[in-house]
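TA notes. Do not distribute before section.
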Amino acid sequence: MRSLPLWLTTTFALLLPTAELSAQARIDFVHPVAGGAMEIVVDRVPPDAEVVLALGGPAGAVPLETQRADASGTARFGYSLPPAVAGETVEFLATFGAGEGAVARVTIDRPQLLVTGEESGGAWLSRVAVEEDGRTFTLLDARELGAGLPGGAVRDGQRTKTYVVADRVAGRLAVVPDDPTGIVTGHPLAPDVRDIALTPDGRFVLVTSAGGAGDVGILAVFDARTEKPVANLLLDPLGAHGGKLVVTEDGLRAFVSVSGLYLLEIDLLRRERGDLVGVGGPGQDEIKDLRLVDGHLFALTGRSDEVGYVTALDVADLRNARLAGPTRTESRFGVAAVDGAAALVLLDGGRGAVTVLDARTMALENAFEVPAGADALLFSPNAARSSGELLYPRGESTTGLRVDFATATLGVERRYDGRLAFLPVHGRATRIDLFFARAADGSVVAIDPETLAPLDAPPLAPGSVRALSVAD
């Protein structure tokens, strides 16, 4: 992964001949976020052609990297974008053959939080930028989405618009452009929306719905570039708790939890149903949580008395399954780093027990006690962290206790003003490395994982916060 040069402070030299734009060649890109990794694809060029990617400027173009196109006529490039380029517009130029080429102008986005809320029956979406220090929030915009109870949200891969569940009860998807003069468009969904996700290449938005009556589930697929629906797949009934959705790293498959202890595989390339895979131990009746980590699919299952199991499936071979349990857990399940590798963390807050499992082998990494009575365990959006925070109710206030899962060490308790509730964070971020909780008035409280000190809350639209997503 190459890093973008310091072009902001460099005088451009004319190092490449002027390219004659090809009618066929195209530059595509995804994830142009400052401080993150951007992917650039040049396609529709002759197979095995030598493609030079350059950075354009007022005085010419500076070559960045050369790749040879594969048999399909595609060359792939990757860059790490420094935080300093946030908000800037970059021109990429790809040349090949006798000066043929293509050009793309890309605006580098800031890491963002997507927060949905509801006030007096109306849904809101707030986009909150995170500055270079990772601790300062700037409200980019707050858009009213009409009547409804909102759900989650995702950003399109080219970072020009946001797809948000504007009404998860009736079923309505809103597409909100970044351009403040742009018009919010709406698309009908089946009622009782359960989850929303974006494919890793940023091209498709997936939404699961229970269908209202609960007798059939529906997966709606939208093209993130055109905003048009491209598929509506019928699923098995989702039941009271189904519809949880994950997408594989290659974007070729998705998995949806359906009624009972089953995961339905979806072939996203053909847009058709795949295998139905059973998970869980004896006596279980629902999938409580679903995660995809390092090529392994993890399903936390349970029943009404809270006895639970974790099933690990190898995405490359779904017959390769491992089961951990039974354990008494209260549906607290997360991913953290232990010795540099992904680990699963389960909390039994009532008994005060933490179990840490190796995500690859499901072997027991650690098991230790914490003070009993925790009602939440907060995980940082950055899965590379080894720590989390336990929240304890203490009358009209909340006490936080930091836990390091790698060393099984506990920090000093800290009391917060007012009662805080666990706020799930959807998505991942390496720069938005914070914990989030919700105060009684619906506002978001951001908590520094190192000091457990609350930070200035993002300036959100009024109303009760319903969902918070990370989009970096």
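Switch to the second chain here.
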Amino acid sequence: MRVEVVARNYTVPSGGTVMIQADAVDCGPNDNRWLQFAANHGSIDKQGVFKAPVVKVDTDVTVTIKSVHRGVGGANLLETVIVTVKKEEVKKAVRRAERLEPRAHGKDGQYSISVQVTDKKDGGAGYKCDIEMFDNGLKFDEHGQPVNGILPSGNREYKKVTNTKGFLFVDLKKFTEKTRAIHIRVAGSELDRELTLEGPKLPKIKPTTGSWMNHYRHVKAELQKRGKL
């Protein structure tokens, strides 16, 4: 009789398991087919299931399979296989953007916007983030061209990448409307905010002398100049 193995080499990850397949063949009527398994590292059970040790470098483990021949002669037959245990992969900690903090700097229709993307510990995101901004108050002329865009591109949408700390600073164009809203989000996430910006404060309309009709016409003309009518 002899011990026959299915494979001479196996590969298993650190701490993983694998079945070592072997059998006793060419047995006589009085031979015992029982196999004994042993490993110089890790552990292996009676069925040949090998449990790999946890290793930091690739390690070869020798597994011995022995058949105890209890028939004539009492011979001991064995085979060996090599199990390569692959080192445990070190996983990098993943920092995920948790908060979007936009702030407006300026007044009277002239602003800059700073954006900070932070993780759950309120530190910098630790990586670059794609920021998308939208000009909600953008208008178009009769040719479909934007006429009052305040984003750097002058269009409805503007995209820019933060630095490696998740920080971004953008200068906006000046506007004269009472308010303008800028929509800000981190691309590919649910982080979404909106900033409302105050326009320039116009001087009060001074009263005029004469009849109430003259005053009405004066106020109407001023409002038309300011785009209120």
